[in-house]
């Protein structure tokens, strides 16, 4: 059996977390899913700090990132990921309510793999990935 990479969801809205988890289940994805609730917690997870200091250090297979986050904005999270040698190859899908062109352009300049505006059906996320 091959290893299934972990999916990291960075989302502060519990309803959006639930919708994303439901969509993943509907597509029978068996990957482990980790949810972080703000940008600071996501960075702690990715850099194995704080409460995540003892986690296994393999990178997530994909990161689903909201932009409008508490503590550390999603664009800052993205910038830190893409500027780190160990993290920059993680595929990142921005899943956000922001329809602002400036957010989309900034995300692509920082190296995001896809930019999806919520609400959206999960098949569209799969098509873009």
Walkthrough of the structure:
There is one protein chain. The chain has 129 residues and is an alpha/beta fold. The protein contains 5 helices and 5 strands; from the N terminus they run E-H-E-H-E-H-E-H-E-H. It has a 5-stranded parallel sheet, sandwiched between helices. The relative contact order is 0.18.
Offer a few descriptive terms.
129 residues, alpha/beta, five-stranded parallel beta sheet, 36% helix
What is the element layout, followed by pairings?
Blueprint: E1 7-10, H1 14-26, E2 33-36, H2 39-46, E3 62-65, H3 74-82, E4 92-96, H4 101-109, E5 114-117, H5 122-128
Parallel strand pairs: 1-2, 1-3, 3-4, 4-5
Helix pairs in contact: 2-3
- The low-confidence parts are 122-126
Largest sheet: 5 strands, parallel
Oligomer: single chain
Strand content: 15-25%
Distance from N terminus to C terminus (CA atoms, Å) equals 23 Å
Radius of gyration: 14 Å
In short:
This protein is of the alpha/beta class and 129 residues long. 36% of the residues lie in helices and 16% in strands. The model is unreliable at 122-126 (pLDDT under 50).
